[in-house]
Amino acid sequence: MHALIIDDSRTMRAILRRTVAALGFETSEAGHGREALDLMEGGLVPDLCLIDWNMPVMDGYTLVTRIRAEPRWRGVTLMMVTTEGTHSHIVRALAAGAHEYVIKPFTADAIVDKLRLLGLLEDTRAAAPGHLVVSERVLA
Amino acid sequence: VTISEADFRYVAELVRVETSMQYDVGKEYLVRARLQPLARSAGEPDVAHYVRRLRADAVERRRAVDALTINETSWFRDREPFRVFVEVMLPRLVEARAGRRELRIWSAASSSGQEAYSLAMLCEEHLPAGWSLDILATDVSEAMVERVRAGRYGQVEMNRGLPATHLVQHFRRVGTEWEVSQRLRSVVHARQLNLAAPLPHLGTFDVIFLRNVLIYFDQATKRGILGRIQACLSPDGYLVLGASETTLDAPDRWTTERHDRVSLQRPSPTTPTTPAVRAAADRASATTGA
Predict the structure, then answer these.
(1) Nearest C-alpha of chain B: how many angstroms from A70?
(2) Full strand arrangement of the beta sheet holding B171-174
(3) Chain A: closest CA distance from residue B184 (Å)
(4) Considering only A34-48, A93-107, B272-286, which range has the smallest mean pLDDT?
């Protein structure tokens, strides 16, 4: 499993890297949306993208819409990890094609919970009912 | 810095007397971790001074017991029991209760209410229109009961296991917190209740979630609780325990039904089912602990 971490804060990237690496993910990092797209256009197809909202050059919301517009990246799971915590931000991100949303501040457990929901951790033989809803609504 | 043996014994005994919950030797770190923030907010320099204060201060004792009986929880905790609720229990109950169109669920030891509200969300999605739903959430801690009634959660709690689609559907942002929708709050009723004591009249439930609670009690108390719980459970209802908990190998009273990793406990067919007989059995189990 490969996770691409997109955040303009080096500290936040390090926190997320440590969290998902401990779960067995390989990781790559990008400081903004454009850099992430460059990596993916260069051939990197991650299983998971952890995406901040506010970043220079290209923000996370735009990145989500760009990734979702490409059929070849349909299998990539997108999770926002951001301080933007209003109801409308979450609705917009889900409508654009994000699968999950974590609002900062978060605990490492929260990331683990969400990855389980998304079926990206081993004991996910039976995902939560919510996961099915997410898949149907967002991917259909 | 740890808690002295005498202080630990005093606190463990306090919690045992008030709630029947057991803090065994080896849990000193946990008691210390739970009491430290209380000591600080009470203006005491350390846990030792705080425990000294507990001996004389009833209000603070209540606060300490609350803090020591709170369980960590999350939305759709352990996920599997909720899947089995939607895929197995709910369809069967909808069929069996088609005439009455009523469902009653009890989240016993509800802590801050995530289990009760998780069930409410699933019922809203999966229960056919026109059904009446009542979810009782009980906890030994009055502070927790108040939290369930308020239905407000901080950001860190919201991140724990709640799918984003459920968040946007069922919550609204209020300041730095999120508030459960009025719809869900109207079906979840919270009250303070000590499972280890005789129960008030609660009526009959179709499903009872009693997870990660029995582990805190000794065998006799467990038996008493299971007896009282069974008296409140419909003969065709379901009891859901925590993954590591059992009904104490009492096949004469409980039948286990397995669905993958989830065990559902159901009253054994031989179990007395008329209200009077069940009440007698309940009294017997309450007094003898058998």
Answers:
(1) 23
(2) B152-153, B177-180, B171-174
(3) 17
(4) B272-286
DSSP letters, A11-28, are HHHHHHHHHHHTTT-EEE
Whether A133 has its CB under 8 Å from any CB of chain B: the answer is yes
How far is residue B50's CA from residue B176's CA, in Å, rounded to a whole number? Answer: 31
In chain B, which ranges are continuous DSSP H helix? 5-19, 28-41, 47-54, 58-68, 80-84, 90-96, 114-126, 142-150, 155-158, 164-170, 182-187, 219-231, 275-288
Contact A116 B79 (CB under 8 A): yes
Mean pLDDT per 10-residue section of chain B, whose length is 290 residues: 89 86 85 90 94 92 83 84 97 96 96 96 96 96 92 88 94 93 97 93 97 86 92 96 82 89 89 57 49
- pLDDT at position B250 is 73
* Sign of the C-alpha dihedral computed for residues B160, B164, B168 and B174 taken in this order: positive
Pairing of strands A100-103, B102-108: unpaired
Q: What is the pLDDT of residue B30?
A: 85
Burial A115-135 (b: 16+ CB within 10 A, else e): bbbbbbbeeeebbbbbbeebb
Helices H / strands E in chain A, number of each: 6, 5
**Which residue among A87, A109, A117 sits closest to B168, beta carbon to beta carbon?**
A87
Burial of A75 (0-12, 13-18, 19+ CB in 10 A): exposed
Phi, psi of B174 (to 5 degrees): -130, 105
ipTM of the complex, rounded to two decimals: 0.78
